[in-house]
Amino acid sequence: SQKIEQNSEALNIQEGKTATLTCNYTNYSPAYLQWYRQDPGRGPVFLLLIRENEKEKRKERLKVTFDTTLKQSLFHITASQPADSATYLCALVNNFNKFYFGSGTKLNVKP
Amino acid sequence: DGGITQSPKYLFRKEGQNVTLSCEQNLNHDAMYWYRQDPGQGLRLIYYSQIVNDFQKGDIAEGYSVSREKKESFPLTVTSAQKNPTAFYLCASSVEDEAGGLNGYTFGSGTRLTVV
Description:
The complex is a heterodimer of chains A (111) and B (116).
Chain A: E1 4-6, E2 11-14, E3 19-25, E4 32-38, E5 45-51, E6 56-59, E7 62-67, E8 72-77, E9 86-93, E10 99-101, E11 105-110
Parallel strand pairs in A: 2-11
Antiparallel strand pairs in A: 1-3, 3-8, 4-5, 4-9, 6-7, 7-8, 9-10, 9-11
Chain B: E1 4-7, E2 10-13, E3 19-25, E4 31-37, E5 44-51, E6 54-57, E7 64-66, E8 76-78, E9 87-94, E10 106-107, E11 111-115
Parallel strand pairs in B: 2-11
Antiparallel strand pairs in B: 1-3, 3-8, 4-5, 4-9, 5-6, 7-8, 9-10, 9-11
């Protein structure tokens, strides 16, 4: 079955730096990949989607890359702010619209 | 504002008791989902429904039941057969894009269920 791996250790960075989060997967390539933000005690919020034929997607300070050879997606937040502190989830979606979620990586941005 | 409303936010269940979690959406989305979130694990799909009066089991449906009598509503019942129900439950909805793929889920704010 599909396996999604996100770093379980929290990522601690200084305000203003670029945060980079990793999502690795095994087995078959997804049709597309999504990233979500989740705050404590709240539901995830959809951020970005990238399709298998796209290498990179940007939205304001966010950038997602997708390398189907490495089976990896990178999620970047540039000029990070303390308000960006949250847990970030990646989700792979196959051609049958089935979702596979990672367990998330917690980001701490220190002022 | 359009969105998904889950209630209650916190729920306590006694041993052997059935409880029902509410999920209502006003987004006019066809598909609705129930996920369970446990610490250190990815979201796991319990049940989903792509159309009114139809629903399918997800990966961990045992001990749960659902209904979809209206497009807007997708309640989840946690039965006494669910041996480890303490978790954070998330309801979501989605709509297909022009290519037949799914845009991002819209999630509710969740219900935290605790067995006492």
